[in-house]
């Protein structure tokens, strides 16, 4: 056997090609794995979250009984009794004298129903003695039943709604009183103990305040620092140190920023707990490195010819930077800022440490009021034992992701529309 | 009041700008010569008003609370003196909430009095603040106006102020680092007053909630951080076992083999994975991954804890895939083309070029990226807070439930906390260790990445 080199190569070629095919297959597998995981993530969120975008409601014609509700005692009155009486008139199998049955019946409507009726009557006391038609949410177990999340075939002891209660529900359903309505409460209500009443209003406003403050602090500070470091700072140990510092800050775990905020902003400065102001300040410290890094990249991308031309016609260094370089770098800076703010919007851990995970049932009026933020609200709901909060958590996540995708889409749009290639 | 104060300052700055600018324009129209453009004269006025007064305003807002509290406490010293520290704080909180209009029950008369005093002091402080700001703004506007002249170098002055502001902005990054270190060191030192350092570093028991020994200074439990850091490492290892191979293989594929269309799709998909907030991953872990693993384990007859380290770790691994993949992609792309061409010209297949030439050449950058990912895994909070356990165990079994440093920090600090309790302080000590560990890894990783980049540029 006297093989030439070409023969040896030819013999080994099949094996080497197989190796290449295998590497390719593994690579493709890895990509598909990532795709699959994203797919499962989104699919599981959508499949459990879409149900929270509707809410089972019942439309009732309620006689505002003047014996239960008297104009001179408003806003007090037996609004729950009035509602119960209406239900009894609709469900023949309930005996009004049977305490247990009546109690079960009252659990059918959401706790918010009587307050909705009360607000209606307080606004217009002339309604007393008349019949009003109101649409109120059902309580969580019945909502789950209507959406098919409770299987009537499971043994009664393991079920949150008993057989008679399902009977009441079916009776009302047959009369066409119950339907699925768009769940606007999800956006117009603040948090609540009752899943059917819990909404994101407080969290949305809290997040908006925090992001606004984060932007107001980190945007000017970040741009100022970046301009100084990129355009003015002498290359020496001090500026090197600052640079290393900024790069490190970008990689410090977020929970450490929470500890900083807790010790310094709340412990030493005495700022209030749970306030979006403190949250915004914390997020600003975390966002600043991102903005600085993005701004420096954008400034670097402006060609030196622009600077030289401006200097050549007699502009001062400041005039060159603020009149020419900065406006040209602005799209890049804005893109980086929006991406930084999107990260800040999803940040949870530091907000937990400063107490933005409190249970707060009203939306904040000022940035000093206690509030939650969107991600901390998700955390609270994910921790809640009630079944109804599972789909609400998914729905809240979908709302959060919508915001994030919108922000990133704006950033991509800005980049593609305004960024110039020199 | 605060809004009004800021509005006043803004109005003063605008007025100063307009006044100076106008005065400069008049001089220019009259003499025809002006050193600086009139806009710079305006800016000079606006900046000399804004910069010092914003500092004054912020300091005022920062300090007024403490000063007012101190004054109120001094007036009520007679009633407060006999109380212990905790009771005194409680009384002050009650006074503050009475002042805010939330009265519970019938408070003692001296508390009502103190609350009234608090309210009056607050409004006094507000009015004084406005008066001081308005008066000094007026003074500064007039001073700036008097400097307007044909020869005044307004531009240089403005540029000097702006440079100063920019230097301040750059220093904020340093202030932040100093603030982190100071806060952590201060609270850690207080923690070490109560718990000896050796117990913290080498103790194998972490039970911050349960008192075990009577009459001990830190009678609140045991504070040995070893089981906690061990748990962190278990979860991080699980995460890296998933993230490193998947991330590297996908980077190799995208860099060398992927058709252009797939690359165009895969990059944004990976970016989406990277942009998903960690709280979402945490929910994903408890909603889907943990139950799936549990039932899979049950079908094999293996007991899996409901909050197994495997669930938290693997979801964290998914989170880190895009991170590692993008670092590796960058590192592979940075290898000079000549190396690739040389290998291909010698007859190597593309796979051989990748595995024997490009990948070894890119190793430093990849290692840097992997180290940064490790630091992220150690510092990652929400996934483990939601999906990992609370009880520290000395175990390396990933099917068991373990806890992590970040979980302990969050659980120790969630809810009402006071700063004189070893439980709270322990969180800061853990934070200190977390900061140090991640800092060392980050500095090391950033140095590798940077050095490597320079080598090929």
Automatic annotation (TrEMBL), chain A:
Domain ABC transmembrane type-1 residue range list: 204-411
Family: Belongs to the binding-protein-dependent transport system permease family. CysTW subfamily.
Domain of life: Bacteria
A biological process from GO: phosphate ion transmembrane transport
Mode of membrane association: Multi-pass membrane protein
Gene, per the UniProt record: pstA
GO MF assignments: phosphate transmembrane transporter activity
Protein name, as recorded: Phosphate transport system permease protein PstA
Keyword Transmembrane: yes
Automatic annotation (TrEMBL), chain B:
Species for this entry: Profundibacterium mesophilum KAUST100406-0324
Subcellular location: Cell inner membrane; Cell membrane
Keywords: Cell inner membrane, Cell membrane, Membrane, Phosphate transport, Transmembrane, Transmembrane helix, Transport
Alphabetized PROSITE patterns for the sequence: ABC_TM1 (PS50928)
Annotated family: Belongs to the binding-protein-dependent transport system permease family. CysTW subfamily.
Lipid bilayer topology: Multi-pass membrane protein
Signal peptide location: none
Origin organism lineage: Bacteria, Pseudomonadati, Pseudomonadota, Alphaproteobacteria, Rhodobacterales
Purpose: Part of the binding-protein-dependent transport system for phosphate; probably responsible for the translocation of the substrate across the membrane.
Keyword Transport appears in the UniProt entry: yes
GO process terms (BP): phosphate ion transport
Protein name: Phosphate transport system permease protein
Pfam families in the record: BPD_transp_1 (PF00528), DUF3708 (PF12501)
GO cellular component, one term: plasma membrane
Single GO MF annotation: phosphate transmembrane transporter activity
Regions crossing the membrane: 42-63, 124-144, 164-186, 223-252, 272-292, 304-324, 357-378, 426-449
Domain (ABC transmembrane type-1): residue spans on this chain: 229-445
Main location: membrane
Keyword Cell inner membrane: yes
């Amino acid at each position: 056997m006297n093989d030439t080199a070409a023969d040896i190569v030819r013999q080994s070629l099949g094996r080497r090609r197989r190796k290449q095919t295998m590497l390719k297959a593994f690579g493709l597998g890895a990509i598909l794995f990532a795709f699959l995981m994203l797919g499962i993530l989104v699919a599981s969120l959508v499949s459990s979250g879409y149900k929270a975008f509707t809410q089972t409601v019942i439309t009732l014609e309620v006689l505002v009984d003047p014996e239960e509700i008297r104009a001179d005692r408003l806003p007090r009155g037996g609004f729950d009794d009035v509602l119960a009486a209406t239900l009894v008139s609709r469900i023949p199998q309930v005996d009004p004298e049977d305490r247990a049955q009546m109690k079960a019946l009252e659990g059918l409507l959401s706790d918010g129903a009587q307050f909705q009726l009360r607000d209606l009557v307080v606004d217009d006391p002339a309604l007393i003695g008349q019949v009003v038609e109101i649409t109120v949410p059902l309580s969580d177990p019945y909502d789950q039943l209507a959406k098919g999340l409770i299987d009537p075939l499971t043994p009664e002891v393991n079920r949150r709604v008993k057989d008679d209660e399902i009977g009441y529900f079916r009776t009302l359903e047959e009369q066409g009183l119950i339907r699925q309505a768009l769940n606007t409460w999800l956006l117009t209500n603040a948090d609540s103990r009752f899943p059917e009443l819990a909404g994101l209003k407080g969290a949305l406003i809290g997040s908006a305040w925090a992001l606004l403050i984060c932007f107001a602090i980190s945007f000017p500070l970040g741009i100022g620092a970046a301009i100084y470091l990129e355009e003015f700072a002498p290359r020496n140990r001090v500026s090197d140190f600052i640079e290393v510092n900024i790069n490190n800050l970008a990689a410090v775990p977020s929970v450490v920023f929470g500890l900083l905020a807790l010790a310094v902003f709340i412990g030493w400065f005495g700022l209030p707990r749970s306030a979006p102001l403190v949250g915004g300040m914390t997020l600003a410290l975390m966002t600043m490195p991102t903005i600085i890094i993005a701004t420096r990249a954008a400034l670097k991308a402006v060609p030196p010819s622009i600077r030289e031309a401006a200097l050549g016609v007699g502009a001062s260094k400041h005039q060159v930077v603020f009149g020419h370089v900065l406006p040209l770098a602005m799209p890049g800076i804005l893109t980086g800022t929006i991406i930084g703010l999107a990260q800040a919007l999803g940040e949870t851990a530091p907000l937990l440490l400063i107490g933005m995970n409190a249970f707060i049932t009203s939306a904040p009026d000022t940035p000093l009021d206690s509030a939650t933020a969107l991600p901390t609200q998700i955390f609270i709901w994910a921790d809640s034992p009630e079944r109804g909060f599972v789909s609400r958590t998914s729905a809240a996540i979908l709302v959060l992701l919508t915001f994030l995708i919108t922000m990133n889409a704006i950033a991509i749009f800005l980049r593609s529309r305004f960024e110039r290639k020199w | 009041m605060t809004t009004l104060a800021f509005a006043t300052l803004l109005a003063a700055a605008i007025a100063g700008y307009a006044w100076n600018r106008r005065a400069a324009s008049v001089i220019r129209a009259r003499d025809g010569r002006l050193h600086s453009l009139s806009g710079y004269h305006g800016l000079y006025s606006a900046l000399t008003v804004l910069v010092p007064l914003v500092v004054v305003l912020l300091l005022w807002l920062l300090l007024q609370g403490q000063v007012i509290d101190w004054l109120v406490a001094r007036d009520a010293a007679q009633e407060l003196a006999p109380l212990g520290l905790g009771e005194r704080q409680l009384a002050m909180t009650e006074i503050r909430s009475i002042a805010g209009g939330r009265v519970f029950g019938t408070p003692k008369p001296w508390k009502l009095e103190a609350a009234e005093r608090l309210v009056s002091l607050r409004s006094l402080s507000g009015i004084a603040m406005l008066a001081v700001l308005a008066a000094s703004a007026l003074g500064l506007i007039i001073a700036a106006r008097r400097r307007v002249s044909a020869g005044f170098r307004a531009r240089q002055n403005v540029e000097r102020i702006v440079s100063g502001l920019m230097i301040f902005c750059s220093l904020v990054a340093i202030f932040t680092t100093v603030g982190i270190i100071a806060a952590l060191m201060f609270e850690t030192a207080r923690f070490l007053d109560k718990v000896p350092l050796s117990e913290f570093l080498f103790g194998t028991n972490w039970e911050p909630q349960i008192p075990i020994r009577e009459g001990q200074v830190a009678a609140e439990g045991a504070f040995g951080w070893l089981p906690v850091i061990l748990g962190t490492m278990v979860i991080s290892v699980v995460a890296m076992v998933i993230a490193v191979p998947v991330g590297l293989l996908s980077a190799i594929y995208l860099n060398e083999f992927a058709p252009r269309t797939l690359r165009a799709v895969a990059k944004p998909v990976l970016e989406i994975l990277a942009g998903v907030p960690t709280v979402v991953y945490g929910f994903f872990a408890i909603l889907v991954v943990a139950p799936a693993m549990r039932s899979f384990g049950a079908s094999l007859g293996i007991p899996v804890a409901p909050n197994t380290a495997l669930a938290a770790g693997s979801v964290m691994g998914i989170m880190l895939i895009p991170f590692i993949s993008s670092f590796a992609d960058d590192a592979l792309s940075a290898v000079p083309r000549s190396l690739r061409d040389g290998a291909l010209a010698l007859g190597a297949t593309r796979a051989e070029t990748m595995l024997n030439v490009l990948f070894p050449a890119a190793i430093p950058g990849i290692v840097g990226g992997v180290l940064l990912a490790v630091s992220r895994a150690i510092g990652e909070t929400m996934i483990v807070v939601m999906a990992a356990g609370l009880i520290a165990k000395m175990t390396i079994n990933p099917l068991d439930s373990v806890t992590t440093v970040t979980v302990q920090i969050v659980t120790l600090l969630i809810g009402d906390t006071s700063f004189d309790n070893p439980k709270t302080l322990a969180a800061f000590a853990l934070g200190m260790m977390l900061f140090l560990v991640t800092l060392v890894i980050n500095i090391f990783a950033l140095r590798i990445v940077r050095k490597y980049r320079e080598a090929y540029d």
